[in-house]
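Subject: Predicted fold for DNA replication complex GINS protein SLD5, 213 residues

User T.R. writes:
Posting the sequence so we have a shared reference for the thread.
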Amino acid sequence: DSDGGSEELVLTPAQLIRSLEQAWLNEKFAPELLESKPEIIECVVEQLDHMEANLKRAKTGDLKVSVHRMEIERIRYVLSSYLRCRLVKIEKFFPHVLEKEKSQAEGEPSILSPEEFAFAKEYMANTETYLKNVALKHMPPNLQKVALLKSVPKPNLDSFVFLRVLERQENILVEPETDEQREYTIDLEEGSQHLIRYKTIAPLVASGAVQLI
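User M.O. replies:
I've generated the structure tokens; pasting them so everyone works from the same file.
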């Protein structure tokens, strides 16, 4: 970047695959749609192409070919599962996802890739058209509008998730389970595992300090 406004993502192949797996598990277990990782996706696709090219040059019958082929298929599975998980969430929470994307402050990371954003907008437009043609046009004029933000359930940020701590955290504020209890703080030791309310640790998931499991 000639302006120095961004840093290029530089990872070894092993670090790249670990980053993909971490993004996949976080997306799989988080109740909301997480930040888009287009750099990781692009790098993984390039790495897969490179691995495929290497296989074509390998000798037929070499045992290493079978091993590398299995690794390629494993990476493709993780990648497709990650992308499919994100699409499922977009379809399930599309008005809230688009509203959150619209309210992002300038400079904040996007939760949608350009392709996902186009998909979400098209999905919302098709849903509105379907509702109008199938149901709303048969209702009285005062009932022919529907607020999708109110009609579609929000992600349940109060749900509980399992996590592993990657970086020690101090004084994490935990909300009480009942009205009789008070808020309290806890320390999260590196390597420890916890069952905790998602919204309590959502910023730590975004920063990479914890891993959902």
